[in-house]
Amino acid sequence: MEHGYEEHMVRRRAELMDRMRAALVVSGRDIDSARLLAVSKTVGVDEVVAAMRAGYTLFGENRPQELARKLEALAARDDVSAGAYRFDMIGNLQTNKINMVLGRAALIHSVRSAKLARAVSDRVVRAAEAAGRPVVPQPVLFEVNVSGEESKSGFAPAELRESLEELAEMPGIAPQGLMTMAPRGDESVARRTFCGLRELRDTCAELCPELALPELSMGMSEDFEAALAEGSTIVRLGRVVFDPLFAL
Questions:
Q1: Where exactly are the structural domains of the chain?
Q2: What are the C-alpha distances in Å from 235 to residues 201, 210, 227?
Q3: Which one of 180, 184, 197, 233 counts the least CB within 10 Å of its CB?
Q4: What is the rounded distance in angstroms from the CA atom of residue 199 to the CA atom of residue 180?
Q5: Residues 177-205 pLDDT 10s
Q6: Verdict on whether the full-model pTM lies above 0.85
């Protein structure tokens, strides 16, 4: 890895953290109330290691195969501490790939339906029973299509509200919050989308108090400050982190 790239990573992280802190302060939030997840789906292991050296600890992958590949490659390196990083699954998850994610992803952001939640829960329970150990639920977020775009997956807001009791009773998952993606190109539309997710989370907490749902995974490279203003606790940044040509 070129020294210039590592220097860029250090500078860019400092810039991003300053921007995040400023957005949180303006919104009256604690500066430690949101985390930056570096989306590493388009880069290799060397770039991920450069990001770790710059101070990143939380990463996200879109594909189960790539998640497994990166974790195996990192585990084989002598210059990376096993406890220095965590990977989440943020992309579309198919039922036939669930086993590739369990035990690897600290948090699955993209549980888009009650059917998928049930499949994850069932796999977790079956694996525990086969190993003769207690069930350790998989932490998950429920993906919500707040904007209603046909191109996006996720629970419809009404569907999530109707599914809350069923989701709360699934023994193999530990719901942590909600995730969404906003339409690109219009900050006002993005902000309404993020506001909608926060309001939905608050409604769900009233309807089903046993689901606290503290996490809101929302905001990407183009709109993370708007997401922070609306309560995001995890912003998912890819190009702005790894691409030196992406203008901040």
A1: 3-242
A2: 17, 25, 8
A3: 184
A4: 13
A5: 999 999 988 889 999 999 999 999 999 99
A6: yes
List, as own/partner pairs, every contact residues 72-81 make where C-beta atoms lie below 8 angstroms and the sequence separation is at least 24, other chains included. 73/45, 74/45, 74/48, 74/49, 77/45, 77/49, 79/49, 80/49, 80/52
Q: Which two tokens stand for residue 168?
A: 């709360």
pLDDT of residue 197: 98
> Is residue 37 pLDDT above 80, yes or no?
yes
Find all residues with CB under 8 Å of 233, minimum gap 6, and list them: 33, 34, 35, 177, 214, 215, 216, 217
What's 225's DSSP letter? H
Q: What is the pLDDT of residues 39-58, one digit of tens each?
A: 999 999 999 999 999 999 99
Give the pair of three-digit tokens for residue 99: 């086993």
- Amino acid 32 reads D
Q: What is the per-residue pLDDT for 1? A: 61
Contact between 113 and 95 under an 8 Å Cβ cutoff? The reply is no
CA–chain centroid gap for 166, Å, is 23
Residues in the chain: 248
Could you name the CATH architecture of 3-242? Alpha-Beta Barrel (3.20)
Q: Which long-range contacts (CB under 8 A, 24 or more apart) does 43-47 make?
A: 43/242, 45/70, 45/73, 45/74, 45/77, 46/1, 47/1, 47/5, 47/242
Residue type (1 letter), 151: S
pLDDT at residue 19 in the model: 97
Task: Give the whole-angstrom CA distance, residue 219 versus residue 73.
Answer: 29
